[in-house]
Every structure is written in structure tokens, then in C-alpha cells.
Amino acid sequence: MLEPLRQGLPPMDPASVSCAASCALPPRYEAVREARRFTRRTLDGWPTGDRFDDICLVVSELVTNALRHALPAGGGDTRPADGHGPVRLHLMRCAERLVCAVRDPSDDSPVARTAEDFAAESGRGLFLVESFSDGWGWYPLTGTLRGKVVWALFRLPEPPAQ
Q1: Closest C-alpha to 103, from 49, 62, 133, 131
Q2: SS3 sequence, the chain?
Q3: How many other C-beta atoms lie within 10 A of the C-beta of residue 48?
Q4: Cut 0.70: pTM above it
Q5: pLDDT 10s digits, 78-110
Q6: What gap in Å lies between CA 53 and CA 125, rounded to an integer?
Q7: Sign of CA dihedral 65, 153, 37, 119
Q8: For site-directed labelling of 64, which of 50, 55, 58, 102 has its Cα 20 to 30 A away?
Q9: Is the dihedral of CA 12, 142, 125, 79 positive or negative?
Q10: What tens digit of pLDDT does each residue of 113-160 get?
Q11: pLDDT attached to residue 100
Q12: Burial of 67 by CB count in 10 Å (0-12 exposed, 13-18 middle, 19+ buried)?
């Protein structure tokens, strides 16, 4: 498995962001279903070509990883300084690219397992992210927000001319 990029999001011109949406997710596993619904509703209005299912799968894996590995076991106040939920999903369309990013409160870097057991029921999340996206990475947050952002990049067909 390739090492993820650790330098933030891939280079993008902010002026090329044509669509963006985000949602806060609660610290419970039902949030994965909510993230999939939000992604489906959002992508219904964005041209994604044949990448729709890949994007929904990767969003599910990124949110599952955030809930499973980034939240404290005993609960507690995990709200970041901006007052939103502890996990936040961002979707950004930039010309022929779509970035899915999930913010969580953990400072720990994501760890891709090198398990050889492909029939295992867990431990394959980042393998799936790498397999279905065109790249992924993470970066630590600075300033008043704690935690990190894990992102995945998808190349998309050129948006139709308007």
C-alpha cells in the first residue's frame, strides 16, 4: 500500500471550486448512514460520471474510520472550537476533481494496515479508500481546531459548459 500524502489537500486553485458542501456528523455509528445520504443528495446535483458509487463507498470508509478510531472511548465533549460536531464531512468539486474530506478530533495519524487477510471483516478501510480513489492523504489541524483531516481525491469528467 502506498503511503498517504501528508501535506494537506492536493494543489487546487480556490477560484476553481465550483461546488462545495459540508455537514456535521454526530458521534455515533448512525452517522455513517447520514454521511451516505448527505453525499448522495449532494452528488445528485454534481456531474460525477461513473464515480458516484466509488465516492459514496470512500465517504463511508472515511467516516467509519473517524468514528471508530478518532473519538474518545468514554465519550466526553468532543466538539471542536468552532462548535460543530466532532466529525465533519466536506465535499468540494474543483473542475475535474472532487475532494471528500473528513475532519475528526484525533491528533493520531491514520494507519493503513498491511493485513493479508482480505476476507477479514475490519481493517480494510484505508485499503478501500486507496483502491477506489485517485489519491488520499491527511494533515493535522492547527490553530484553535484540534485533530486532523483525512481526504480522498477523485478525478471526474470535465463539467459541462454553461
Answers
A1: 62
A2: CCCCECCCCCCCCHHHEEEEEEEEECCCCHHHHHHHHHHHHHHHCCCCHHHHHHHHHHHHHHHHHHHHHCCCCCCCCCCCCCCCCCEEEEEEEECCEEEEEEEECCCCCCCCCCCCCCCCCCCCHHHHHHHHCCEEEEEECCCCCCCEEEEEEEECCCCCCC
A3: 18
A4: yes
A5: 444 444 568 999 999 887 899 999 999 998 888
A6: 15
A7: negative
A8: 50
A9: negative
A10: 665 555 555 567 888 999 999 999 999 988 888 899 999 999 998 756
A11: 95
A12: buried
The three three-digit cell numbers of residue 62, written as one number: 472515511
The alpha carbon of residue 59 and the mean position of all alpha carbons in its chain are separated, in whole angstroms, by 5
C-alpha cell of residue 139: 494533515
